[in-house]
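Office hours follow-up: a student asked to see two folded examples consecutively, so here they are.
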Amino acid sequence: MEDSELRAARALFDRRMRREAGPDGGARVDRTARAVRQAGGPDDWNGVLWSDLDEATADAEIAAQKAHFAALGLPFEWKLYAHDGPRDLGERLAAAGLVPEPAEALMVAATAEVVERTADVRLPDGVRLARVTDPAGVALMADVHARVFGRPSSFPARLERQLAEAQDTVWAAVALAGDTPVCAARAELPPGKEFASLWGGGTLPEWRGRGVYRALVARRARVAERRGYPYLQVDASDRSRPILERLGFVRLTTTTPYVYAPDA
């Protein structure tokens, strides 16, 4: 993408996926004068999606969001993007007790370009993809993620509910070597939006470098193309970013989760 295209894509992402975000599952999205947030139950993603702040308003807004989620009894995440203002917003969040997690690159690509670049991508011999449609499949995904990422996650409960109540908004699969799950990933397909989001993709160490991750990107790109999404979006780690760049993704900005857990 040219610089002008990147700026346009970032503006579109900010508007459609952050300011105009729809709720996940049974969660609720609230729009205040200066922020957009989502709140649901303990298994939902709870946090701040977008904010419009400056030096005079940032601290009060951070305090207001802490009070809101405290009243709900929920920990929450403030999803900070590098271009969000004010420039020291991350420092202000940290001073208020929110803890930064590792930063990731927000990467986007034209769906058609990824489909074209991955037309010849194949799974290695002996590996097959199994689409996840039920709790048994979600359990296989959770097993892979636990072994790859080594931290607990609420995504299995959210995904089970999503598959039961809004199956068209997600596509998920596990790569199996025989009966052993070696990689798992999903695509979020928000209705009426331009971006399909790719999540997961965690691969067991002994299976990295064999094309499994690329094959899951390729399959999800084809799903997104069939569903009419012009763009793909990924929050990419340092490990996956080089692979994605070879498939046509470019970095729009950096995103850092700031997490507040009152009882931590």
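And the second, which I mentioned at the end of office hours:
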Amino acid sequence: MNRYVFYHYLIVCFSNLMILVPYHLMAERFDGSVMAIFLSPIFGVIMLYLFTAGLSKFPNQGLPEILSHFYPRWLVGAVVTYKALIVGMSSTLVIASYAIVITRFLNPEGNPYVILTILMLVCAFGATRSTVTVNFVLEIVVILCIPAIAFIMYKTINNPFLKWDAVQIVLNHYDRMPSLLAFASATFVFTGFLNLGLFNRILPPNFRFKYRWTFPLIAFVVQFITFFVPIGIHGTEGVANYVYVWSATADSARMIFGFIERMLFIFLIVLINLSLAFTMVGWHMVIEYIRTLFPNNKVDPDEPKPPRRSYWIVAVLVVLTLIFMYLTNELNVIYIGGIFLIIRMISEIVITLWVYALSKKKVRKYEKKISV
């Protein structure tokens, strides 16, 4: 079961390519992004250990069940609704960004709303399945994508156009203090553990979080490559000319003896799998969080048939995503994405510390009961 925790960490780790994290880091590459990248693993390790230590005291329970032990229903409902909004916004940004990327690089004459609708229908079907089923689908997607991601990173690092002098120039600005946006962008890659706020329901009661130290280490390596490789290929100034910088970076690599010459096509295939999996998991979490607001809701991580209310919730998510796509453009998405990253980081800190504090409160309550 420990591998499923790893999959949730990886899907968020790899999805930072689609949620404009590289763009915000590149924008401040001379003004604090380097220090933010080197400080972010410390933040990631602390948050990971606190959150998993807190969840270990509440086996088979998600965030709504944990809060319901200590607080009235109205407060639990407010927190769960806020959590659903945060998760839903991240999924919307990912799927909308990918619809723009696939329209621009694969089918410039295509209708982005049609492409987005097709992607969302696939995500909606997966999101309405049971929690156990969503976990299994996530495992399949991550296992299929890891070799391709490793190959893409290998090809880009060995790109003859990569100039390490440009990387060194940016590294020389390591002493610049990061802005709040740069630090929030750098820490996003370490936040996959927050999915356990729902998926802790399917972990066995005697589950122990093992090899936690490997999670931030892998995330840091991915973050380092994600940031510095595009700088080495496009240059310290040229890298700022791209919104989705990794699409252009992948397109700079070639497979001379491959049946597909352009690495971009492999990159986009990997992205579609990651974006669908990320959105499916995010929307499933939103569905489960919203369902807890209904009276007499039954928590069943392996329910054989989705209830009708799940379809209504995901239909609202599809409509809201289409409205978001219609009302915004790329510049607005960048601005909204920056605000979202800051709000998300603050929310992560609050929820992590909250769950950890509640776990200590439960232990004290249990010890008090035993002493009596």
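Two things to take away from it. The chain has one domain: 2-295+306-371. The chain has a mean pLDDT of 85.
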